[in-house]
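Second attempt. The first submission of FdhF/YdeP family oxidoreductase had a stray character pasted in from the spreadsheet, which I only caught after the job came back as garbage. Lesson logged: always re-copy from the clean sequence file. Corrected sequence (763 aa) follows.
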Amino acid sequence: MNTRKVSIVPPEEFAKLKITNPKEIAVGIPAVISTFQHISEEMGVIDGLKVLQKMNQTSGFDCPGCAWPDPDHHRSKLGEYCENGAKAIAEEATKKRVDTAFFEQHSVEELSQWSDYLIGKAGRITEPFYLAKDSSYYVPITWKEAFDKIGDKLQSLSSPDEATFYTSGRTSNEAAFMYQLFVREYGTNNLPDCSNMCHESSGTGLSKTLGIGKGSVTLEDIYESELVIVIGQNPGTNHPRMLAALEKCKKNGGTIVSINPIKEAGTNVFVDPQNPLKVLTGGTALEDLYLQVRINGDVAILKAAMILMLKAEEDRPGSVFDHAFIEKNCEDYPALLRHLRESDFGTCVRASGVSEEEIRKFADLLISKKKIIFCWAMGITQHENGVHNVQEIVNILLLKGSIGKPGAGTCPVRGHSNVQGDRTMGIWEKPPSSLLDALDKRFQFKSPRAHGHDVVDTIKAMNKGEIKVFVSMGGNFISATPDSEFTGEAMKKCDLTVQVSTKLNRSHLITGEEAIILPCLSRSETDKQNDNVQFVTTENSMGVVQKSQGSFEPASADLKSEPAIIAELAKVTLPDSKTNWDEMISDYDVIRNHIEAVIPGFGAYNERVRAKGGFYLPNGARDGEFNTASQQALFTVNPLPKNEIDPNHFILMTIRSHDQFNTTIYGMHDRYRGIHNERRVVLMHPDDMKAHGLVKEQVIHLTGHYGDETREARHFKIVPYPIAKGCLGAYFPETNVLVPIHHVAKESNTPASKFVEVSVNKA
Ligand SMILES: Nc1nc2c(c(=O)[nH]1)N[C@H]1C(S)=C(S)[C@@H](COP(=O)(O)OP(=O)(O)OC[C@H]3O[C@@H](n4cnc5c(=O)[nH]c(N)nc54)[C@H](O)[C@@H]3O)O[C@H]1N2
Ligand SMILES: Nc1nc2c(c(=O)[nH]1)N[C@H]1C(S)=C(S)[C@@H](COP(=O)(O)OP(=O)(O)OC[C@H]3O[C@@H](n4cnc5c(=O)[nH]c(N)nc54)[C@H](O)[C@@H]3O)O[C@H]1N2
Ligand code: SF4
Ligand SMILES: [Mo]
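This time the job returned cleanly.
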């Protein structure tokens, strides 16, 4: 047990809040200014511009920000990046360093009192560090000593299942493939990943209904769609270049609907910074219809719309639903019809929080349009009924035959830049047996068949003392996971925790008895093995696999690439392995040849990925083939969620500010929402403030309620905001302490981070 006096949650100090009106317009000149501020602060303007010129170019490296795709052919010479991509790169190319002198000065006990913002700003980690049992200071350790310690510990466990191996979504295909191979050769499927907290509900719902856990659309589809619905997603902040795609759709005559408890800037009006003239003359109004749904009112609104669609279909048979498509491709249509006929329209309208008039407008669009796309993210997946949300979206698309044809389909917009690729590579605690069989054949070992732990089950197992070693390939497990106090205590029970990281974060401070940091190269840096420069590959949100080659001087001469780290870990841990780990590192083409042999869809990988723009992976749903058990797409019946809470309580959604990438806090502003220089805020409707006797900037504490359990997050300021009534918004990771470990999506086990029942108490 780690007995250091560390603080698991960030300090409760306030910065200096300033509130302005929420912005109507996204991007434009303020975004250009913000871009230059971030790069010049971290790396100087000249270096910054050089790096940005390489980002998302076919000869450069993949943006380490989100997973939004790059255009297949035309890349802008001005650069293919957005404000947040620039921030992501500034953050990893920072000139600041976490080195021996830094750790001599600061103990982990002290650092844990820092905010996540300050911890992240400390800089890049320069060499391996070791935190001994009962010590509070990291000390340098050689790579060899570090690998030996980890290898010895892994070999000493009574079962491989006493170790767990987390992955965050920045890991390349090559590193991910080697990592899961190492972990399975070691003998466990304990491969939790950030996806478990993210789009797992999408993967689960889509696999079940359409036979593929990924989205079906391409960028071209968005351009030519007649109706794009953006639901539970904030693209202006989290996928900024998606706005350019929506703009093209609009220009081609498309209609855009957004469904969100907050009217987010961006889906509203967009000014493309790549188009200098427009920056000066105004932008494109993107959104045609905004529906202010109540938090978790999505099943209700989608069902209400389907009831209206059915009514119109019954009035004018054949005019709304695509019967030919349904007959040829779908199962369980009668069950859905029966359910819709039995459902009460008024109940659905009331549960959604949106007026009947507006729902009718939405339904009219669904009725009249034929090429429809739904884009969604965490507002859909992070609910107890997250899988049902996804399945309701699929129901609408299937009724319209809006799948497997141009301009139509599913678009779960993925978060981390390679989170989708990591899953394709086998980072999955529930691997299909086809993957395991292929691994066994290629590498001559017997892979474990029992499923492993996902994120939530890992935390529970750690808490019970069943996990002794925690290894993390990137990410920040402590700050990203729910129920911070519970998770922190669970992590402290481990014997050894190991983090492969670029930058310092809270997971280096809340550790097991012993801890090791293995510092790695970032995306933008040159990866040289045997004097040969290597490249890696990633898969974006639309299933395009692309090359990514860093070309900048590494932050320190003592860094290793993620694949090299995995190879060394594998060699010390598995001395009898028949796998030639060194060969893979000497030339990453060898890793890609293995991938080609094991993972379907990677034929001629090395050749095709060298082509400009990479290649598309096969996608059944895109081609109108549904690889479910019955080879048919499935309609599903999804009940209306009860959403019952105490009438004096609120529903809190834990969301991202404009100045963060998950747990990495770039800055203290949320520019579009008009919140400046403060993160400890709660967005509340002015009518709710009045009813509860609260005033602007009033300091409050939040108490989370789940069954008999309560959790506390203290010291937040109230920001009056036009959010749906009865709903609150606040940033994670500060509010993760309120998200109950047991409150998860059914079937996908994703923490319900967008639905936390809270009461608000004056400080
Ligand atoms: N700059 C930046 N980019 C990022 C990230 C980042 O942190 N910063 N993170 C990356 C990652 S890993 C991910 S997964 C994505 C996340 O991208 P998003 O899912 O856009 O991120 P969130 O801030 O979680 O926002 C969820 C949105 O859903 C809305 N919402 C919440 N609850 C509900 C609901 O019940 N119904 C509906 N209809 N809407 C709801 C919120 O108001 C908000 O607009 O972004 C990726 N890109
Ligand atoms: N309450 C609440 N909690 C949430 C969410 C929410 O909406 N609400 N969203 C969830 C979602 S969608 C996600 S995806 C998770 C994110 O969970 P994670 O992926 O675990 O978290 P990140 O903050 O993205 O990880 C950042 C760290 O990754 C390391 N890193 C950065 N680049 C690299 C690299 O190239 N290689 C390596 N090895 N390390 C690198 C750095 O050390 C950095 O500190 O959080 C989840 N948590
Ligand atoms: S949209 Fe996403 S991938 Fe594209 S530049 Fe911005 S952060 Fe990077
Ligand atoms: Mo995510």
